[in-house]
């Protein structure tokens, strides 16, 4: 289910969070934002485990290797949009720095969702999306709420789903970037939960000690106004946790 703006939203924060991996921006002034269509993420990548063993380890150590085949057309299109952003909006824009900040923001917001601390999301998420979250989050079972949380170290793969540039009749300019995340979570979900990539059995220590992890996906859309004089702040205008937040 896509939780996104149904009407012009409010642009508040994340300038510092999206500018680097270790900084968060305090609340900023609000600005209107246009609605946008729901853009789908690219196909989910495959994943496999590879065993490694180092000095002092007992038994095999496991890591996740994500393999993804990117459409050349999609890759060129997003790179063209990044060039437009640097040429006409922000000469210092870097998708690498943006991605690092987006991962940090995703981890923070997903944990607040899992903990039902919705009041703390008011400066992080658009008002329209927050209203939908308040209606949905209280209806989730505990296992689904636990599965929403993504530790920063548990994010296995991050990619851009789509990039859009908007102009309205008043000359207000917006950039919207949809980020797709794949993360491991140890919530007690049933094995037959639909929509997952796979349920992995991760072995730590020896074969008698097993910890089950779920590889889950989430889609978060970030939007910023680039009109002259507007604050350089980003807000989250769409949240998806497929098969969990419905």
General description of the model:
It comes from Chaetorhynchus papuensis (pygmy drongo). This is MAIP1 protein. One of its GO terms (biological process) is protein insertion into mitochondrial inner membrane from matrix. One of its GO terms (molecular function) is ribosome binding. There is one protein chain. By secondary structure, this protein is of the alpha+beta class. The chain has a domain of 163 residues: Nuclear Transport Factor 2, Chain: A, CATH 3.10.450. The strands form three sheets. Strands 1, 6, 7, 8, 9 and 10 form a six-stranded antiparallel β-sheet that branches. It has a two-stranded antiparallel ribbon with strand order 2-3. It has a two-stranded antiparallel sheet with strand order 4-5. Strand 6 and strand 7 form a beta hairpin. Helix 2 packs antiparallel against helix 4. The longest helix is centred in the middle third of the chain and has 20 residues. 30% of the residues are buried.
- How many runs of DSSP E, i.e. beta strands? 10
The CATH first-level class of the domain at 72-190 and 197-240 comes to Alpha Beta
**Structural class assignment:** alpha+beta
Which oligomeric state applies?
A: single chain
Count of separate DSSP helical elements: 4
The poorly predicted ranges are 1-61
* Computed CA radius of gyration, to the nearest angstrom: 19 Å
In N-to-C order, the SSE pattern is EEEEEHHHHEEEEE
**Shape assignment:** globular
> What composes the largest sheet?
6 strands, antiparallel
CATH architecture of the domain at 72-190 and 197-240: Roll
Helix content: 10-25%
* Average predicted confidence as pLDDT: 74
Strand content: 25-35%
Instruction: Give the distance, in angstroms, between the N- and C-terminal Cα atoms.
Output: 6 Å
What name is given to the CATH topology of the domain at 72-190 and 197-240? Nuclear Transport Factor 2, Chain: A
